[in-house]
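Q&A log
Question type: sequence-to-structure
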Amino acid sequence: MRIAASNARFAQIEIKRGLFPFGGATIRFPREVGWGNAMRYLLTGDEFNAAEALSIGLVQEVVEPGQQLTRAAELAQVVSAQAPLGVRATLKSARLAMSEGEEVAIGQFLPELQAIMQSEDVKEGVQSFIERRQANFKGR
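Response status: OK
Response body:
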């Protein structure tokens, strides 16, 4: 997750200097924002603002300047309150899909789910739902 200040500015200016983005932007930028959005900025070197970064999916939120770290910490707190086994499995699955492809990730759904379904956290999650209370996950 990426948080940007409302006054943030973004650009890949290598093309304007006779170069190309050889640090990996030609790989990461299209993956993050889509081919057309990435090419719009990689091939022109144009600058864009935080609102555009949000619009194309480069950032997930825009906040007032100076509030980026506070908001990131708030989101981290929300994530840390979730079931640790579920968070780890979600990250693992998403990373696997990105690196090995969707079919490989799909092939791991059932084994991952079977392991998690035996956990104390799933029992706690269901019980907290029934009791309409916040779950207290242990990562077991």
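Response note: The first strand starts at residue 3 and ends at 5.
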